[in-house]
Design goal:
Signal peptide: 1-20
Keywords: Signal
Pfam families: CAP
Largest sheet: 3 strands, antiparallel
Organism: Hibiscus trionum (Flower of an hour)
Strand content: 15-25%
Protein name: SCP domain-containing protein
Order of helices and strands: HEHEEHEE
Number of strands: 5
Amino acid sequence: MEFSKVSSLALACLMAVALALRIADCNLEHSGGPYGENLAWGSGDLSVTDAVAMWVNEGADYDYDSNSCAPDKVCGHYTQVVWRNSVRLGCAKVTCNNGGTFITCNYDPAGNVIGEKPY
């Protein structure tokens, strides 16, 4: 199958799976690909639902009016999850070589555009 004929959603899923398999050693390194990307790691069996909940919980530290995060806090995972223009999503989960769980979710188009608000 030619990648040009694969839907964007299917391609995002394929990219998520490929990334998860590539880094089954649990090195949390972004792929540098064209998609927005959230990564999570947990010891034991972390679920995708739990990973997304962790990212969404960052919203408590996000201030929409100033489009910024509280000092010493991280909000970029949250803003990618809620990014209004990201309409396709692909996630993958893999058990790491050390027994932990690695989860990656890819968003298309990518969010977190500098100077833009997520919604």
